[in-house]
Design brief:
The chain has a single domain (about 5-285), classed as Alpha-Beta Barrel (TIM Barrel), CATH 3.20.20. Helices cover about 45% and strands about 15% of the residues. The chain has 11 helices and 10 strands. Strands 1-2-3-4-5-7-9-10 form an 8-stranded parallel beta barrel, surrounded by 9 helices. The chain has a two-stranded parallel ribbon with strand order 6-8. It binds 1,3-dihydroxyacetonephosphate.
Length: about 290
Amino acid sequence: MLVSLQEMLADARKHNYCIASINTPNQISLRAILAAAEKTNMPITINHAQTEENVVPIEIAVPLMLEYGKASKAAVSVHVDHGFEFNHCMKAVRLGCTSIMYDCSRFPMEKNIEEVKRFIDIVHPLGIGVEAELGDMPNNMPSEIHGQETSDLSDLSVYFTKPDEAEEFCERTGVDVLTISFGSVHGMYKDEPNLNVDLVKEIDGRAHGVALGMHGGSGTPFGQVRKAITAGIRKINYFTAIDTAPTPALAKTIMESKNPVNFSILANQAMEIIYEKTVEVLNVFKNGANR
Ligand code: 13P
């Protein structure tokens, strides 16, 4: 069923757990991830990122996501991940997305606030939840596309969100989720991650009730994920580890087969592996909540 992000976040705060936010750029991922959300009884946002336009255009992806989301027994928000352009986000509104990340973190803070506030004023009356980002999320991705460039990962603290700025951002925008930078990386980590959980606690205490988001969940040791949730993280984006999980097994199937392997066989194998991996992650995101 479709449930608003705001409603999901309120329950996650009350019971100290975290909403998973996972990209579903194909029907196999969509089915596997929703099945995992049903199995674990965890609310979820299923995402289409603007950077995935070259994989599947939003006009194709979102109607399918809505169809599956409505039919699911899990609480689902159909979400835009990293919408960089206002017009793209407005297209998502027209297509029926129930929550949208309008990512203006590349701009100076004042422009980020103005843009996000302008968007919120339009979409909050429609019940659409809004996520924004403050501070930079570093990337470790082999791509030149904006939002996926490889960053200098030698000192992640240079990207951290500043508590004073976060407080002002939350107060002036009334955003539903503020994604902060505190040591995670989009894609896989280069070195052993070391999240700054004290920074999460500090920002959470000054966020005027705004839920905090973490991106780049993949590869973070589960112990650190749980600590970040307990410190106030209410939405975690998690993709690379789920999307790459089936690849070794599929390669093995192909290599070991004497005959050409049907794609539909591989797709079903991938679906099962994505499902198992997502169940594992969602159980961590429960953080001990009785669900
Ligand atoms: P990972 O792929 O590193 O898990 O990050 C996903 C993400 O943050 C998407 O916005």
